[in-house]
Amino acid sequence: MLRRLFAVSFVVLWAGGAVAADPASGITGLFLTTKYPGLTVRAGETTTIDLSLRNFKLPPESLTLSVPEVANGWKATILGGGQPVTAVQVAPDSEERLQLRLEPPSGTAKGEYRFTVEAKNPQHDEKLPITLTIGEELPAKLKLTTNFPALRGTATTSFKYRVTVTNDSGRDATINFSADAPKNFQVSFTEAYGSQQITSIPIEAGKSKDVEASLTIPRETQAGDYKLTLHAKTEATSADLPVSLTIVGQARVALSGEGGRLSGEAYAGQNSQLTVVLRNDGSEAARDIELSATTPEGWKSSFEPKQLPQLAAAQTQEVKVTLTPSERAIAGDYQTTIRASAAAGLSESANFRITVLTSTLWGAVGIAIIAIALLVVVFAVARFGRR
Question: For 81, left (φ over 0), alpha (ψ -120 to 50), or beta?
């Protein structure tokens, strides 16, 4: 009798979550429990309740399972491993998980409905009372929150909104995500601290999960303020979260040759001019621009202009580059790197192939000498040939 009272007391405490199942606690016996012996459900829906049958410090126990008390018109089935079962065996210091599936008759009215689950053998008779209430269910409700609804950066910044999704409904739900964003903006969702993109996520009733909404925007996006709306939706309800984004201007310097050419010609020891096109592809003016060149050894370079105080967004500027190869430079191809450096750490460079040609001066001198020699021969033949 005392053991039986102890068992009943344990079932009540277990259902309330006050006693943990720990074989080292000194508890001995067989116990049939559930986390929620009383719960409210929606009318007309089948309900599945998780059960636990625990064996503390007893030999293996085989028990017959049944539902001796069933509310009028309801159908009760005990499941094990997803299949209907009528008996179960529990090893020492182990647990067997079961489920009670309750199917209501059509037209079930509001009220309380009582059931009793029994696990029985000649030595043990464990009964678990369960009460189902059909009444007003918590309305479906979602909530989206974030600590940082307004972000700021350049068009190349990686923007991420950390969002907490709360299922304040009375039922578990699968939450679907979407977003309204400006044209060419792309929004993707991942679970917090995860990398796999998702479009939906399951959340238990009354629980919350964190997700990240990552934003990808075009590099040419103009500076300004932009508004977005994040959406979470289930079959029964939805929630919206307005967020904003401020894009600040960013200069982006680019270098190219005139007409897109990245080559030129020069003669050893002589000045040769090259035209370089400097442009700002960004959304903000580039400031304090200075040009420089890395040339082969013995070469000289100069720029006109060498410095620009400012180059507005979407504007271009031609720069004349004077290159003077070394007097000892032999014919062939050489590389010169021209670089533009601006404030805020901006820097851009382009490589130019400079072909050094053989000077035509000595060729002309040689031709002149040959011509003079021919004239002398012709004169000599004409004068002395008669003799």
Answer: left
Burial class (CB in 10 A: 0-12, 13-18, 19+), 121: middle
Q: Give me the pLDDT at residue 366, please.
A: 63
Closest CA to 238 of 129, 140, 108, 127: 140
How far is residue 353 from each of residues 259, 261, 297, 332, measured CA to CA in Å?
15, 10, 15, 10
Q: Is 241 exposed, middle or buried (0-12, 13-18, 19+ CB in 10 A)?
A: buried
Q: Which CATH superfamily is domain 2-134 in?
A: Immunoglobulins (2.60.40.10)
Contact 228, 244 (CB under 8 A): yes
From the list 63, 49, 131, 62, the residue with the least C-alpha distance to 98 is 49
Question: Are the C-beta atoms of residues 146 and 243 closer than 8 Å to each other?
Answer: yes
In the chain, where are the structural domains located? 2-134, 142-247, 253-361
The confidence band for 383, taking pLDDT boundaries of 50, 70 and 90, is low
